[in-house]
Amino acid sequence: MHIEHFAIWTHDLERLKTFYEKYFQATAGAKYVNLAHQFESFFLSFATGPRLEIMRMPTVPLAKNDLEAQFTGYIHLALSVGSIEQVDALTARLRTDGYRVLDGPRTTGDGYYESVVLDPDGNRIEITV
Fold first, then answer.
1. In which domain, by residue range, is 42 found?
2. Could you give the CA distance from residue 129 to residue 10 in angstroms, rounded to a whole number?
3. If residue 19 lies in a helix (H) or strand (E), which one and from where to where?
4. DSSP string, 35-95
5. In this structure, are 1 and 45 located in the same domain?
6. For residue 128, what is the enclosing H or E element?
7. Which pLDDT tens digit goes with each residue over 20-61?
8. 20 to 30 Å CA-CA from 58: which of 36, 39, 40, 67?
C-alpha cells in the first residue's frame, strides 16, 4: 500500500499550479473540468512520491484556521529538496519573492533540517532535505 495523492482546495487554481511548478518542479497534468458541479482540478506530479491534486469549486468556503497557529487535521505537506543547501536556497528565494516563512531553516529536535513556508493560499509546506 502507498499514498497515491493528497488534495487541497483553492480559489485560484492557476496561481497555485504555477507556484508548485515554479518552486517545487511539479508537472501538471491536463485540467479536469466538471461543468455540472462547477469543479476544476489539476494533478501535480513530482519526481517521486505521491501526486498533489489542487481543486477549485466556487461553493467551497475559505478556511477559518489561524495560519500562525496549529490546528486539528492535516497541517502541512513536506517536500524534500535533497540537501541542506537546497533547503536554504529555496527558503531564501521564497522569502525574497514575498512568501511567508514561518520557521527555519533549522535542525529540529528530531534531527530534520527544514523550514516551514506558506503557499499562496496559506497552506504550510515543510521544505526538508
1. 1-58
2. 27
3. helix 13-24
4. GGGTEEEEEEE-SSS-EEEEEE-TTSPPP---TTS--SS--EEEEE-SSHHHHHHHHHHHH
5. yes
6. strand 124-128
7. 999 999 999 999 999 999 999 999 999 999 999 999 999 998
8. 67
